[in-house]
Design goal:
This protein is α+β, with helices and mostly antiparallel strands. It contains 3 helices and 2 strands; from the N terminus they run αββαα.
């Protein structure tokens, strides 16, 4: 699978879907390390978080669907 850095030749910023901390954009790792440590105790990919991983806007994101509709389709 190609990651964003390979595709665009530069690192993209994203946001933690729980606390909105700026982190590298990675659709498969949408949580910062501290929040990931909490999440991993239950490992519920459908647990509702607070922010879109790409734009950082308020959104009922989950680990399995971390992007708002606008970011997902654009």
């Amino acid at each position: 699978m190609i990651n964003a850095t390979e595709l665009f030749g530069r690192k993209l910023d994203g946001y933690c879907i729980r606390c909105k901390e700026k982190i590298p954009f990675n659709r498969y790792r949408p949580l910062c390390y501290n929040d990931w440590q909490d999440w991993v105790r239950w490992k519920n990919p459908l647990y509702i978080e607070r922010y879109c991983h790409k734009c950082g806007e308020p959104y009922m994101a989950t680990k399995s669907q971390p992007l708002c509709d606008n970011c997902y389709w654009n």
